[in-house]
Automatic annotation (TrEMBL):
Region span, Disordered: 66-87, 276-300
Lineage, opening ranks: Archaea, Methanobacteriati, Methanobacteriota, Stenosarchaea group, Halobacteria
Pfam family, one: DUF7531
Official protein name in the record: YkgJ family cysteine cluster protein
Highest taxon, organism lineage: Archaea
Length: 300
């Protein structure tokens, strides 16, 4: 895609706080996310496994949705008989969107507060992708194997589906030209919509009872590393195309994620602490990320 990203990073930063008008496009539709993260990128099962393999699983976080529809779906067994199954699961007093009673979620990349200055604005503390260099506004893993498929093809999927892109939102809010080509590429990976997404981009948590307390913490924006590890493990252990989970794989991955201690996880702890003090020097990124081993960016 031909896009002008210099000085922007609009798809990687929650810039709503500095926008001239309010934007809430992710809060439309029949189901509301439990979190308030803006533009949380849905990772594929392969993406999640790759982050796990390179020791960056602590950069990941889940998204779940409320479901107040009281809808039911028809489920058939191998003998051909069918029954109505409630498409939600109640945890911590919240009705969650679910399949066969198992809460539905996807996995994205955490967005801690960072001191950034997109669109030539003054530096502000804004939720920012864990892998975005706050100084160059470039992705630290752009040329790495772990770079997510959704990011690599953005905004191709939006254009393919006739949906507005973040490039266009930035243009409307701050001026300039960001989307230089509005034709989607001929070669795009599968969009993974509907049933084909199950176990590939949309996952289910195998046991709702294990999420007691987790949903409450998610609503309060107080998820722990252990909470997030549960969803990474469930995504990797899910059986593509089904709502089944390999429990042995789940337990193995859960232990591995809990032991993850990357530069991302360590830097997020400091970013969150610094944001409370509202420090105002963007160069702190060198100490917070670079000195912890964050990959460099090339600059513009």
């Amino acid at each position: 895609m031909d896009v002008n990203c210099e000085g922007c990073a609009g798809c990687c930063v929650d810039w709503r706080a500095i926008a001239p008008t309010a934007s809430d496009h992710e809060r439309r539709g029949p189901r509301e996310p439990l979190d308030d993260t803006y533009n949380l990128v849905p990772l594929t099962r392969e993406d999640v496994a790759c982050f796990l393999d390179v020791g960056l699983a602590d950069a990941l976080t889940p998204r779940l949705w409320k479901d107040e529809s009281d809808a039911e779906t028809e489920s058939s067994d191998t003998a051909g008989s069918s029954e109505k199954v409630k498409s939600s699961a109640k945890v911590d007093g919240v009705e969650l969107a679910a399949i066969d009673g198992k809460p539905v979620f996807f996995v994205g990349i955490r967005k801690p507060p960072k001191l950034v200055a997109p669109f030539e604005a003054d530096p502000s503390w804004l939720p920012t992708c864990a892998f975005l260099d706050p100084q160059t506004l470039q992705c630290r893993i752009h040329d790495e194997d772990v770079y997510p498929q959704e990011c690599a093809e953005y905004p191709g999927h939006n254009l393919k589906l006739g949906q507005r892109t973040e490039c266009e939102r930035v243009e409307n809010a701050f001026g300039g030209e960001r989307l230089l080509d509005d034709e989607p590429p001929d070669e795009l990976s599968g969009l993974l919509l509907g049933p084909q997404a199950i176990g590939q981009k949309i996952f289910v948590y195998p046991d709702p009872e294990e999420l007691a307390g987790v949903v409450r913490r998610l609503l309060a924006d107080e998820l722990t590393d252990g909470d997030r590890a549960r969803f990474v493990a469930a995504a990797v252990a899910g059986r593509p195309g089904t709502t089944g989970t390999n429990r042995e794989t789940y337990e193995t991955v859960l232990d591995e994620v809990r032991e993850t201690d990357s530069w991302v996880g360590r830097s997020i702890i400091e970013w969150e602490a610094m944001a409370k003090n509202e420090e105002s020097d963007p160069s702190v990124a060198t100490r917070v990320e670079d000195e912890r081993g964050a990959p460099p960016t090339s600059g513009w």
